[in-house]
Structures are given as C-alpha cells and as structure tokens.
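anyone seen this seq b4? input:
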Amino acid sequence: MNESSEDIGGSKHGEDIEGEKIPVKTAMICPECRSWIDIAAKMCPICGLRIKHLPRPASEGRSRITAALLALFLGVAGAHKFYLGSIKMGIIYILISLTAIGFAITLVLGIYDSIILFTMSDEEFARNYD
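predicted toks r here
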C-alpha cells in the first residue's frame, strides 16, 4: 500500500503495476445504523448489530456449474481449465488430446473433473478458484 493513500468513502487507493490508482475496500456500511464500519468487523460498534459476512462469489463471475458443464462436454479440449484461469493446463489438455490415447485420457480426466466440480460446495469452489 502506498504511504500517501487517502481514505475516501471507506476505500483506500493503492497503485497497480502501471502506477494507476485502484480502489482497495477497507470499510462497509452497517445495514442498521448506516455508519461506516471496518469490513472485517463481526459487530457494529455503534448499534451493536451482528454482521453476517456472506461468502464472496468466485472472482470474475465464475460459476461452479458452468465449470462442471464445460468439463463434462468440452473437457477433452480443456475448456474448463481455461474458464477457471489455468491456461497452462488448458493448453496441456489440448496437446495431449491430439493423439488417440491422449484423447481417451483427457476424456476420462474431463469426466472426473466434472464430477468433482458438481459435488463441490460453493464455498469450497470460491476458496479454491477465487
């Protein structure tokens, strides 16, 4: 974090690689009394409301069901790996599937990955792919 960062409306501004300012969220508004509180607070210090932190959705709008369906139907080509952000593994799937035995291997791996993704909880998916 930058020493000259300003606290503006509950967010600080850090700098990314190109030097552009990006917001970093550090506070939220209490749903009861509408005062600013720390984002990690379990209870509002003003009104005493217990804060429920909902699990965050996977970054970039990724969906567990979409990933599982991609693994099931396009798993041979590694589409689910690309979707989940694992570009290297997606390329490896494509290269392996170019041979007959490799096609069979990636077919089995795609079905296996789809079963894992279908049976995984949303919280575990968010933890693994966030």
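The chain has five helices and five strands. Strands lie at 7-8, 11-15, 21-25, 27-29, 36-38. kinda curious what u guys think
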